[in-house]
Structures are given as structure tokens and as C-alpha cells.
């Protein structure tokens, strides 16, 4: 059974940091590209960062220089380190695994940036 479970969200003050985790099971994690998406109130879903099976990373402009995506294939987990958080980073953050026609998503974790 495929599972993709995000964790690590919460309430943080502007300028703070959070590390999100996404634990996957039920498929060969190392073969899949992994991405983090977010959807804020009233906004469309946005891809924040992605990492290929080979470790190549891509970032949306909104997160460049502040967010870092990484993966640990021994733990079947992908991470999103978020620094210098801003109120506009408030959103539900989702993890997605992609390979060919296969696409697995989690339920998301809420990140709220507020003083």
C-alpha cells in the first residue's frame, strides 16, 4: 500500500525556520522524483521545489535562497528546509512522488507564518 505522509508543519514567526519531512512507503522511493507543492488561502497550488532521483534540485523563485530540498533514500524521506519564512509562505505544503505515469501525493501539512 502506497503511503506519503508529510510532517513538520506548524506556527512560526516571520524570519523563523521549519523543516518539513515526507515519509514514503509502498513504492521504490529512490526511483521517483520528489516535489514539494503548496497552496495558500485563495491561491493556486504552486510547486516549491523538486529533486530528481539523481539528486538534481529545482526551486521556484519564491523559495530560491531560502528553501532547500533534500532526500535520504535510506529512510525513504524527502525534506524541505525553510528559512527566513515570510507570512506569504503560509500554506498547506504537499509532497508528491512522480515517475512516468505514477503520481503519489500526501495529505499535506499546514505551515502558518505569523507574529
From the spread of the alpha carbons, the general shape counts as globular
Low-pLDDT residue spans: none
Straight-line N-to-C gap: 40 Å
- Count up the helices: 0
On the 0-100 scale, what is the average pLDDT?
96
Beta-strand share of residues: over 45%
Order of helices and strands: EEEEEEEEEEE
Major sheet description? 7 strands, mixed
What does this structure look like?
With 115 residues, the chain is an all-beta fold. It is built from no helices and eleven strands. The chain has strands at residues 3-7, 10-12, 18-25, 33-39, 46-51, 57-59, 67-72, 77-82, 91-99, 102-105, 109-113. Strands 2, 4, 5, 6, 9, 10 and 11 form a seven-stranded mixed beta sheet that branches. A four-stranded antiparallel beta sheet has the order 1-3-8-7, with no helix packed on it. Strand 5 (46-51) and strand 6 (57-59) form a beta hairpin. The protein is globular, with a radius of gyration of 13 Å. 30% of the residues are buried. The model has no long low-confidence stretch (mean pLDDT 96).
